[in-house]
Amino acid sequence: MGRDVDIEEHPPVRSADGAISADFLKAVEAAINAGDIGRLRALVRDLHEADLADVIELLDHDERIRLIEMLDRSFDVEALSELEEPVRDDLVAALPNRVIARAVRNLETDDAAWLLEDLDQKEKREILRRVPKAERIAVERALRYEEDTAGRHMQTDFVAVPQHWSVGETIDYLRTEEDLPEEFFELYVIDPRFHVLGKVSTSRLLRAARDRPITEIMEKVDAIFHADDDIEDVARQFEHYNLVSAPVVDESGRLIGSIYIDDIVDVLEEEAEEDMLSLGGVRDEEITHSVMETTRGRFVWLFVNLGTAVLASWVISLFDATIQQMVALAVLMPIVASMGGNAGTQTMTVAVRALATHELGRANLWRVVFREVAVGLLNGLIFALIMGLFTWWWFGSDQLGLVIAMAMVVNLLAAALAGILIPLGLDKAGADPALASTIFVTTVTDVVGFFSFLGLAAWWLGLSG
Questions:
Q1: Are 195 and 254 in contact (CB under 8 A)?
Q2: pTM score
Q3: Which residue ranges make up each domain of the chain?
Q4: C-alpha angle with apex 436: 432 to 441, nearest 5 degrees?
Q5: Architecture of the domain spanning 291-460
Q6: What CATH number should be reported for the domain whose range is 2-148?
Q7: Over the stretch 15-53, which tens digit does the pLDDT of each residue have?
Q8: 3 state DSSP class of 131
Q9: What separation in angstroms does the CA of 74 have from each of 58, 285, 360?
């Protein structure tokens, strides 16, 4: 009986599906609404900052503010760095500057900059005035870089030692120096101008004899990034070279920071999520956005889609007399368009991913194009045979079966070409192929599918158009 009470008082944080459990959320909401600070602190005391962020996102605006106010100094400010942007902006605008300043003092440089990036200059200055000088300078420097650059994502806390030190001097420095990062995996060896000469892993350092020069055990740095480098390019190099951390230098080559794998994992996840959402025309949408924000974000591409749908309908209207003479055409023509749309989407998805990961470029461009054309032609012939025989059996017309077979080949070939060439063209024009390709590819397959099937029917079967 006592165990049941404990479970009721401390419900599990997450349910079997991995989401925040409804019982836990209700317990948090009840504590907030009752003003029970002790109960609320007991519930969230052991939560990881990512779990606390998930709970905050599930609360409404007023409950979020009251939760932070009730927890006061016991609130884990690192949870703010785990929030979705709409919720972050909502809280930063509503919370007192002293709370945001405490978060900036305790967060890593890139997370602190992310928290402040959308505030106006006056509010930034007010908050940063409450932050110790060293942290303030680091955050201000990070904010000078664009959002999607290495400089914005780097940590200004890193370990660097001069090239003339020995292993023993380096170890003694690490043991006695208080102003070091809490966690680090590698240290950098630098010259007097602060240029990076090499790196040493902590495990390699600890296994070396104390009297050995640090330069004897250092390894070549696989990648050095400039502060203005695009973070997605940085992430791809982390993935390619299996990096754990990497140095960041300024325009003169001086070491100014380090990027760590945990930040790169977030970048890769965001990039994959962005590409997935872009393929559906909802690139910047979050589940925490308001109804009006979501409606505005989806309207543009739905409007464009409406225009392309009207174009496909207009093509059908050109053959209204043909359709009236053979009702079977109306039954079969969606099949041709649908097969082309699916085939085009398959090709387009592979092309967009290859462009995003830089696997598709001038060196292999035409080989990939010819491969997709060959695949489209082969699939077209196979499904032409299947659909031709099926139509002959269904409607008893070998002529109609031949028409749909020819249309199937034409449309699957067009789908392959559109699926590869449209993303390439958009990328060449500087547009985002993930965001714009879907509508154009499906327009091509619909128009070509309807036109080829109905046009061939009008010509081959001798129907008047």
A1: yes
A2: 0.64
A3: 2-148, 160-261, 291-460
A4: 130
A5: Orthogonal Bundle (1.10)
A6: 1.25.60.10
A7: 887 889 989 999 999 999 999 999 999 999 889 999 999
A8: coil
A9: 20, 32, 50
